[in-house]
Structure formats: structure tokens, C-alpha cells
TrEMBL record:
Gene Ontology terms, MF aspect: ATP binding; magnesium ion binding; thiamine-phosphate kinase activity
Domain of life (superkingdom): Bacteria
Residues the record lists as binding Mg(2+) 2: 44, 72
Sequence positions that bind Mg(2+) 1: 43-44, 119
Occurrences of domain PurM-like N-terminal (ranges): 25-134
Taxonomic source organism: Phocoenobacter uteri
PurM-like C-terminal domain sequence ranges: 147-295
Listed name of the protein: Thiamine-monophosphate kinase
Family, per entry: Belongs to the thiamine-monophosphate kinase family.
Gene3D superfamilies in UniProt: PurM-like C-terminal domain, PurM-like, N-terminal domain
Recorded catalytic activity of this chain's protein: thiamine phosphate + ATP = thiamine diphosphate + ADP
Free-text function comment from the UniProt entry: Catalyzes the ATP-dependent phosphorylation of thiamine-monophosphate (TMP) to form thiamine-pyrophosphate (TPP), the active form of vitamin B1.
Ligand binding (ATP): 118-119, 143, 210
Biological processes per GO annotation: thiamine biosynthetic process; thiamine diphosphate biosynthetic process
Length: 318
């Protein structure tokens, strides 16, 4: 089976649904944008050994490869529309490809995203996805837009993915529903697309949490040239995380990566309207602190706490 057959057999499932796609299957996909739209583009690679364990199911691998890209679009406030896929395979394993294709199209259908192109090559397993989304002109959520006095929010709960990774790394078979939940949070993150899109009306600044809250918030602070105060007692920790990893839960929430939740800022005068607006979404958002002039301060019930000594935010000296 050659490259063309693989594409035909495993990756040619969707009928061109979006009117904006003028052609697929030529040398390039051609897309028409509406005059009031901007294009948001992102690329992420998942490489075996670096980003995932070799024994992870190809269904989950495909799902997550798409999810992390859609999460970047969500963090910009963009609505995902199209992806292209570059797949490097050591050999042709039909069961692996069939499961991969099922995982890929499961998440694409879920978020109404279309596969419009790609490439396959032989080599060490790696998956590169480029995702494109649309954004209304003049809108968007940027790392440099935080301002002193803004409230800092995060979506969902933090630290779950790191806990799931620990369970996987220790090869502990899941013993209960809490562990199942943590594993799923690691393997199948939820891109917060509806939230990102709604944030366009209430915020100008967001990032998705891929490297851990402190590291990713650090990117906002660096780009916006400001500081932050975080109230540790307000960190959203899930019941499964606290139950399974009690003493590590807070550290996982601060420094564990791959939660793919959004961290964003809200002007205090927009807080009430924002909290009202998110009741229409099935997601919890927690105010965990505020933007300050400089430095990163962690507080527990008003008392200052030392920063955990870990990479990613070491440019903040207290
Ligand atoms: Mg990101």
C-alpha cells in the first residue's frame, strides 16, 4: 500500500462540507475567507518518546494531536475550521492506522473541523498537525494584553493531566473511577473552544495551559510586562486529583502541564457580565488572582508562600 492508498483508505472520509473550501486533493487546499474574517494558524508535533509513551493507543494519539492544536486556537478566541496532517510512520500497520483514523475523525466531527490536506512519510513515528481557525476582524486574545488590575481566571480544574501522566508512567492499571478520570484528562484533553469564542466579548488576553499554570501565566506576564498575585486557595482542584494525590495536588495544578485549560484576564468591571455569560456554557471558571505591576506572588489565605523551585518561571525572582 503506497502513500496515496493510505490517504484514500484512512483519511478520505469527510465530504467537503464547508462552503469555504474550494478544492481538496489538488496540490494545495484553497479556502475562501469572508471579508470580515482573520485566519489563526498553529502547528504542534507529537513525537514518540518525547510527547507520548510508545504503547499509547493510536486512537488516543490522534485525538490528542488534534485536541492540542484546537486548544491553541481556543486560546486565541478563534473558531477551528481546518487541519492538515503530516504523519511519519515506521511501517504500515493497518489496525494502527484504522484506530488512528477513528480517533482523528471522532474529534474532527465533534468540533466540526475538516481535514483538508497532509503528507505521509516513512520514519520514526511522529504526528504534526497544522490547524486553522477564523476570528472576527479586530477580535482575538493575546498574551501581551494583560493590564494591571485585571482579574486572572482559569477554566475547569488544574493538575489532572499531570496526575494522569503519573499514573501512566507508573503503569498502574486504573483502580477506580477517580483514576479513570485523571487518565482521560491526560489522554483526551478538552479544547475550550466555546469559552475562547465567548471570551472575545469579555477579554483580550488568554493562553492555554500546556506547560503548567505558572509557566504559561509567566508568558502572559512577560509579554504584558506586568506581575501577578495568585491566591492558592482558589486554585480549582478536582475531587479525583485531591483524593488520589492529596499532597501533590497543588503542585500539579501550578506546574503540571497539558491541562489545556485556558488562563485569561478579565477587567473587574466586566466580571459580573462574564460570570453571567458563562452560565450558558458547561464549564466552571475560577478567579485565582489579579494582575499586578511586577513579580509573581503566591498567597495562601493572604499569607505569602514561596514559589516552587521549578523551571519555566525562574525569571520571576521575589
Ligand atoms: Mg498554547
Amino acid at each position: 500500500m503506497g502513500e496515496f492508498d493510505i490517504i484514500q483508505h484512512y483519511f478520505n472520509r469527510q465530504k467537503a462540507k464547508q462552503h469555504s473550501v474550494l478544492t481538496i486533493g489538488d496540490d494545495c487546499a484553497v479556502i475562501e475567507l469572508a471579508p470580515e474574517q482573520q485566519l489563526a494558524i498553529t502547528t504542534d508535533t507529537l513525537a514518540v518518546g518525547t510527547h507520548f509513551f510508545p504503547d499509547v493507543s493510536s486512537y488516543d494519539l490522534a485525538y490528542k494531536s488534534v485536541a492540542v492544536n484546537l486548544s491553541d486556537l481556543a486560546a486565541m478566541g478563534a473558531t477551528p475550521k481546518w487541519i492538515s496532517l503530516a504523519l511519519t510512520l515506521p511501517n504500515i500497520d493497518h489496525q494502527w492506522l484504522a484506530d488512528f483514523s477513528n480517533g482523528l475523525f471522532a474529534i474532527l466531527e465533534q468540533y466540526n473541523v475538516e481535514l483538508i490536506g497532509g503528507d505521509t512519510t516513512k520514519g520514526t513515528l511522529s504526528i504534526t498537525i497544522t490547524a486553522q481557525g477564523v476570528l472576527e476582524k479586530g477580535k482575538g486574545l493575546y498574551r501581551h494584553k494583560a493590564q494591571v488590575g485585571d482579574l486572572i481566571f482559569v477554566s475547569g480544574s488544574l493538575g489532572d493531566s499531570k496526575a494522569g501522566l503519573e499514573l501512566l508512567a507508573n503503569q498502574t492499571p486504573s483502580k477506580n473511577s477517580h483514576q479513570d478520570y485523571l487518565l482521560q484528562r491526560h489522554l483526551k484533553p478538552t479544547p475550550r473552544i466555546a469559552l475562547g469564542s465567548l471570551l472575545n466579548h469579555y477579554s483580550q488576553c488568554a493562553i492555554d495551559i500546556s506547560d503548567g499554570l505558572l509557566a504559561d501565566l509567566g508568558h502572559i506576564l512577560e509579554r504584558s510586562q506586568c506581575g501577578a498575585e495568585i491566591n492558592l486557595q482558589n486554585l480549582p482542584l478536582s475531587t479525583p486529583l485531591v483524593t488520589e494525590f492529596s499532597t501533590l495536588a497543588e503542585r500539579f495544578a501550578l506546574t503540571g502541564g497539558e491541562d489545556y485549560e485556558l488562563c485569561f484576564t478579565i477587567l473587574p468591571e466586566k466580571e459580573e457580565a462574564f460570570l453571567k455569560a458563562i452560565t450558558q456554557l458547561d464549564i466552571k471558571c475560577s478567579c485565582i488572582g489579579r494582575i499586578t505591576q511586577s513579580g509573581l506572588t503566591l498567597l495562601r489565605n493572604g499569607e505569602k508562600v514561596e514559589l516552587p523551585k521549578q523551571a519555566g518561571f525562574d525569571h520571576f525572582s521575589l
